[in-house]
Design goal:
Strand order of the largest sheet: 2-1-3-4-5
CATH architecture: 3-Layer(aba) Sandwich
Number of helices: 6
Shape: globular
Oligomer: single chain
CATH class: Alpha Beta
Order of helices and strands: EHEHEHEHEHEEH
Bound molecules: flavin mononucleotide
Mean pLDDT: 98
Length: about 180
């Protein structure tokens, strides 16, 4: 059995991307999935002036978890057409404390938003940028108009077919 670490790059206590991650966990069969809640993390803005001993303990722990786990489900909100500053800052910290942290392991990217774009612009950016951290992006999924397509804590309609499909791509990648 493989170990999958799942989280969302959001510091919103009512994050819809966390709701999507939690539901996606329920679609994964025969794998251990841990949802890591980073919403309350208060991480200082990365600066190259910061010494290694100023690295936040959360960043050190996340790097350890990334090394320990076999695959990842990462959901990201979209802010102003890009990655939220909260999540970008975490990635910047990781990039300076662990080269290629994801070690070519498979990553399933998700995004949702209340609007019709579903965070697809930022997904394109993440597909381009996370491989700089060693992520092997096996699939991505955007859920537009969250409140129309997520009812009673579940993705509904054709989007459920699409989400199951990308989950299968992650489990296939893990079995290779
Ligand atoms: C500063 C800011 C910028 C936003 N920009 C976008 C955007 O470019 N595209 C979009 O689809 N939604 C945008 N939104 C709306 C977010 O999709 C919405 O807040 C969503 O709940 C964020 O996901 P989360 O709840 O998981 O944090 C923006 C929200 C904020 C606070």
């Amino acid at each position: 059995m493989n170990k999958i670490l799942a989280f969302a790059g959001s510091n919103n206590s009512k994050s819809i991307n966390y709701k999507l991650v939690d539901f996606t966990k329920s679609l994964v069969n025969d794998q251990e999935v841990r949802v890591l809640d980073i919403r309350s993390w208060d991480i200082p803005m990365y600066s190259i002036d910061m010494d290694p001993d100023q690295t936040p303990k959360e960043i050190t722990e996340l790097i350890s978890l990334i090394k320990e786990y076999d695959g990842f489900i990462i959901a990201s909100p979209e802010h102003n057409g890009g990655m939220p500053a909260f999540f970008k800052n975490i990635i910047d910290w990781i990039s300076r404390r662990s080269k290629g942290a994801f070690e070519s392991k498979p990553v399933l990217l998700l995004s949702t938003s209340p609007g019709g774009g579903g965070g697809a612009n930022n997904l394109k950016y993440l597909i381009h940028s996370l491989p700089y951290q060693g992520a092997s992006i096996c699939a991505s999924f955007s859920l537009p108009s969250f409140y129309d397509h997520f009812k009673n804590d579940e993705v509904v309609g054709d989007y459920l077919v699409g989400l199951n499909d990308v989950v299968e791509k992650l489990t296939d990648a893990l079995s290779q």
